[in-house]
Design the sequence.
């Protein structure tokens, strides 16, 4: 299949202009690969996170929620293998001082030898030998900056779940198999961040650890693989832009027995990339924490009178990366019949769109603005709406199309007499006349689909 077009630059500009995503500390020239979410971005991200929480926690009686702290005991990261194993090989260029992952496909020749060529400055022989670089951010706990006080910003939420495994199991009296889910920040000092919000140094994760009896793990692994792919399709991501990628032996993380990524086709040179990882982590993490903490982390099965360390099947998805997938998937430019100017549309599913309806008076007279404001005020407690009376009506439609608003409600000359408005559908451009009394139900029903 030919490469899909690269829409990243257009999205970066749209996201800034319309208030989805801004560069962090922009007025100081920006912070490397950290982004802030503006008024529309936070609505979209929240919608995505709430949808995940509802799917993974609220609608299942065998998955519990958790919100563990970012800062954890430093021994956690020794036990988890992150201090020794969460490393990427990196090379530095002596000439231009740029840093690359040693396996960067843009590097020609072999780093550390005279034929190794820097992909940035083009010099040969200036790339050093690959060195292991730990991706965890280090900081200090308390006022003394000595090594005893070193702690890490967590690079995954999962460890907060493992150390709370028995707290959650005993307080909820869950029986295996059951899961623990959480949404939270994670930090990685990535060597080559980039592609907008695709790979950043501060990001969020929505992770679920499912604890199962050893021997049943591959069955659950298959179950969660299919559940998670179903979820991504339900977001409206195009079927042919989604695929599984199985990790080969060399790709497996230090904790994984088996792993599949859900990949999305971001188009351009980025192509298919991971948006979620599904891992069979076996008993690696719980066994390690039992060993390092000296505390038993076994599960007691009352039915069989057996004690064992459960195996874990993990589903780990990034809301930031999935949000980027939604933007890429939804972005389109199209001609409009009878108009010179085309339109840009963000084809987000109505359930995820940050604003559900634009509300406009057709013209600024004859009581239309007052009626439109009243309608907007009555809908606002139920879903986000945006009142707009500035500029030509076509322009107002375009402004909503570009941010993915699925419906535009217009008060026109017939509205006052018949207590009705037109509702324009973003995708079909079809306009329905709807009574003001049933407007809330009409929109609510369409955004729940
Ligand atoms: N606990 C397992 C784990 O962390 P992962 O595959 O490294 O697995 C899971 O990360 C998800 O987190 C990824 O699929 C991606 O969506 C997101 N993610 C990881 N690193 C990221 C980064 N630097 N920037 C943005 N999202 C990231």
Sequence:
């Amino acid at each position: 299949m030919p490469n899909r077009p690269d829409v990243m630059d257009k999205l970066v500009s749209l996201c800034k202009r319309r208030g989805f995503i801004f560069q962090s500390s922009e007025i100081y020239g920006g912070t490397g690969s950290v982004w802030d979410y503006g008024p529309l971005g936070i609505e979209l991200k929240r919608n995505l996170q709430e949808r995940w929480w509802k799917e993974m926690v609220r609608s299942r009686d065998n998955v519990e929620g958790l919100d563990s702290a970012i800062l954890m005991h430093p021994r956690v990261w020794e036990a988890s293998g992150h201090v020794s194993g969460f490393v990427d090989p990196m090379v530095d260029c002596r000439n231009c001082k740029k840093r690359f992952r040693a396996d960067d496909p843009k590097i020609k020749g072999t780093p550390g030898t005279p034929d190794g060529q820097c992909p940035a400055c083009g010099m040969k022989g200036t790339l050093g030998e690959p060195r292991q670089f730990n991706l965890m951010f280090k900081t200090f706990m308390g006022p003394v900056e000595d090594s005893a006080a070193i702690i890490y910003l967590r690079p995954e939420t999962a460890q907060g779940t493992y150390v709370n495994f028995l707290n959650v199991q005993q307080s909820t009296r869950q029986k295996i198999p059951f899961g623990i889910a959480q949404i939270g920040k994670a930090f990685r000092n990535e060597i080559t961040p980039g592609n907008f919000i695709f790979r950043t140094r501060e990001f969020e994760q929505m992770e679920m650890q499912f604890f199962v009896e050893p021997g049943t793990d591959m069955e659950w692994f298959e179950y969660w693989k299919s559940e998670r792919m179903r979820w991504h399709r339900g977001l409206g991501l195009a079927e042919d832009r989604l695929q599984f990628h199985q990790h080969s032996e060399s790709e497996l993380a230090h904790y994984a027995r088996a792993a599949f990524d859900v990949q999305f086709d971001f188009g351009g040179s980025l192509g298919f990339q991971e948006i979620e990882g599904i891992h069979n982590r076996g008993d690696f993490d719980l066994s390690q924490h039992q060993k390092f903490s000296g505390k038993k982390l076994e599960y007691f099965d009352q039915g069989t009178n057996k004690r064992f360390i459960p195996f874990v099947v993990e589903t780990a998805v990034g809301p930031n990366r999935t949000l980027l997938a939604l933007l890429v998937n939804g972005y389109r430019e199209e001609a409009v019949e009878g108009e010179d100017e085309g339109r840009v549309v963000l084809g987000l599913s109505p359930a995820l769109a940050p604003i559900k309806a634009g509300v406009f008076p057709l013209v600024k007279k004859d009581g239309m603005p007052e009626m439109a404001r009243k309608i907007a005020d009555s809908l606002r407690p139920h879903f986000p709406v945006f009142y707009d009376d500035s500029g030509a009506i076509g322009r107002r439609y375009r402004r909503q199309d570009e941010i993915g608003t699925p419906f535009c409600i217009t008060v026109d000359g017939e509205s006052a007499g018949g207590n009705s408005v037109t509702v324009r559908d973003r995708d079909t451009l079809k306009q329905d006349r709807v009574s003001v009394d049933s407007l809330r139900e009409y929109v609510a029903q369409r955004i729940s689909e």
Summary: Residues 43 and 354 are 5 Å apart (CA to CA). The first helix runs from residue 8 to 18. The first strand starts at residue 21 and ends at 23. Residues 156, 158, 188, 190, 199-200, 203, 205, 207, 274-277, 314, 316-318, 320-321 surround glycyl-adenosine-5'-phosphate (CB under 6 Å).
